[in-house]
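Morning F.,

Quick status update on the modeling queue. The single chain you submitted on Monday has been processed. Sequence for confirmation:
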Amino acid sequence: MRGTTYARRAACALAVALAATACAGGGSAGGQDGGTVLTSSWGDPQNPLEPANTNEVQGGKVLDMIFRGLKKYDPRTGAAQDMLAARIDTPDSRNFTVTLKDGWTFSNGEKVTARSFVDAWNYGASLRNHQRNAYFYGYIEGYDKVHPDSGSPSAGTLSGLKVVDDRTFTVRLRQKFSSFPDTLGYPAFAPLPRAFFTDHAAWLKKPVGNGPYAVESYTRGFQMALRKWDGYPGADKAQNGGVTLRVYTDNDTAYTDLLAGNLDLVDDVPAAQLKNVRNDLGDRYVTAPAGIIQTLAFPYYDKNWDKSGSEKVRTGLSMAINRRQITDTIFLKTRIPATDWTSPVLGAAGGFQHGLCGAACDYDPAGARKLVREGGGLPGGQVTITYNADTGSHRMWVDAVCNSINNALRDDKACVGNPVGTFADFRDRITRHKMSGPFRAGWQMDYPLIQNFLQPLYYTGASSNDGQWSDKSFDQLVDRANAETDTARAVNTFRQAEGVVRDHMAAIPLWYQNGSAGYSDRLSDVALNPFSVPVYNEIRVG
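Structure tokens below.
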């Protein structure tokens, strides 16, 4: 899932009608919310909150609060656990029978049935609905008919989905995919109520789900109010009265509001405050390893980055970046220099390969100059790194990366940063393929599998392959890995695919990220899950 360090709230410069509530503060640290409702920093999602159309962190946070799917990822280990699934059976890793638990409903009272899942997946897969996560249904038989590479769909639904009865449906895949059940905690696989289809416009304004929270209201650019759903049937009930997500355009402002008692939770401490955070918050500062990697992606739809020799230029740029110095001085060791394209949270058995990048990720100015020269030089004589500027952290590290490149290449104009005002605008430019040089590409895992660090980002036509990189040998290895029924063999094949990414330097790995958060003295039981998202339902207020 595409990450951001959150787009933040414009400081009380909203309409006069909102002023009293937007700037409320005082001893309750939640202003007007008070009681058992907590306030947390947030950023507007890029897209409406359709599960199949949300592939970035801010929207993902909300979906994780208002939906529950067949699986749920353990907030401590990340392991996929049955949620609405009573069981998922398969004789051959291609044909699956899903049996639902009884007693689940949506917050509007509608029963969750097999049809709730099948209709949702069919909607998400259809080319007609233009859903960003349609690719996640690509292994289900019939996807090529509902979402063809060119032309119009020749079918309205996925032939691989069949409703058996209210609590049972079957899934037939195009090929074997042994890890398929473990992917089903991703929000794209959430069920949808009939209201989503019968009054879609109303649903978009106020989404209805089946999770522990329900959306009460949302004003774009201001806040979203989520409140505990008392009728929630799951075991992971909300331990607070709700969460008000406040939009910030600067996370330094969010941190200042936290210290002033006007905000309860900041779930990404800005880099500029890391040197002060222990003194400011004491044990109310939490940090934990997360399945997040920061990279520099490239626009392969631009011929300057997709020509013979360009892989040498990209590798040279990688060798020009002093990762250790940047992570030590800017992030105060809350980031770890990356040596592969996954995350240490996977562990070696899960596919993490420490040192896979080799010398290409070592700081070597002489080697960098040599490779850039052999590759034909920087396109246009300069690289421009585009990033969203709604957080000071990105500006700081992009400036540091450019300074490192300039020093290594002995050219003070070799690299410059190109800030874009907000995360939503930044993502819009990326998805419209308007990049001409490298751009910030944070990735937060959707589920803890090596497949998720590789296939969505580098497979031809994948949902988050923003630079449109393509390599047949990589695609073939991913297909082989997915078809493996033995986990160890599957992981090993994915590792071979990652070697292809390395050999082409498809993206430059920068560092692995720890999650961080700071919170007010009103809160307790604050923790981050392996996706670097607060476990909101466990937080207590008062």
